[in-house]
Amino acid sequence: MAAISVAVIALFTALALTSPTPTAQASTGSVSAGIDENRVKELAQLDTSALLDGQVCNGSLIEHRAITSGSTTLGWLDVYWDGTNNCAETVSSSTTWGTLKEMGVSIQSCLTSDAQDGVCNGSIADEDDDWGDFRYYAGPASVNGTIYCIGASGWIEWGGTTRSVDIGWSHCG
Fold first, then answer.
1. Which residues pair with 163 in a beta bridge?
2. N or C: which end of the chain has fewer CB within 10 A?
3. pLDDT along the chain (173 residues), means of 10
4. Residue 3: in which H helix or E strand, if any?
5. DSSP 42-109
6. pTM
């Protein structure tokens, strides 16, 4: 449910950042809402079916890392824990929301006894990923996390360059 809230907030943030500011009309004293009818039509056609079908991570948000290009946030790597599984997704920011772009997310698990000082000294126990051309988010990708440490990465290609963020082996269960 928290992931749906994050996605809905991102949608409304994208709307707020691209909608014109209301303006006063001097001659009549009225206020125009400044509604862009084309923008309303565009938002009405957004593919939010994945959000409604539960195609997002469940559980408690345990990592929220920005994917940046200079001072611009392109999106976030979000990692969740539901008591059994860790789940990760890369979510577009208002800057990239709705624009078709290559993006992805990857998550791996390593036995807790093999993960030391942020390095998996054994073999990867499980891994999952999702990548391709998306408008809103990549994922979910999930692994069992009950006796494992997890590592995750998220990336977005923007302006011909791939930007990414990683979390090292952490959140050991």
1. 156
2. N
3. 42 39 40 52 49 69 96 97 95 96 96 76 89 96 91 96 94 81
4. helix 2-18
5. HHHT---HHHHTT-S--SEEEEEEEEEETTEEEEEEEEEE-SSEEEEEEEE-TTTTTS-EEEEEEEEE
6. 0.69
Is the backbone peptide bond immediately before 22 cis, with ω within 30 degrees of 0? no
Each residue of 57-87: b (16+ CB within 10 Å) or e?
bbbeebbebebeeeeebbbbbbbbbeeebbb
Please name each of the domains of the chain with its CATH number: 2-170 (2.60.40.2420)
Angle subtended by helix axes 2-18 and 37-44, to nearest 10: 160
Residues paired with residue 105 on neighbouring β-strands, in sequence order: 130, 154
- Cβ–Cβ < 8 Å for 153, 138: no
